[in-house]
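Handoff note, outgoing to incoming analyst
You'll be picking up this chain. Sequence as last confirmed:
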Amino acid sequence: VVILPEGTQRYVGRDAQRLNILAARIVAETIRTTLGPKGMDKMLVDSLGDVVITNDGATILDRIDLQHPAAKM
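Most recent structure output, in case you need it:
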């Protein structure tokens, strides 16, 4: 028996696999542009309006709020 919070959806099979790959690809694209000698800076704004400008991938991953389990990995 699986108990999920109200308002959540459960995907199985190919749909779940496709959504996991999509979530990982989006995170990878976000970090990819910061790599290399021509890496760009990212401006992160939190809910309070505080701004952080960085090109460090670890800092970006720490600061963004990920909800998807595969994206968190």
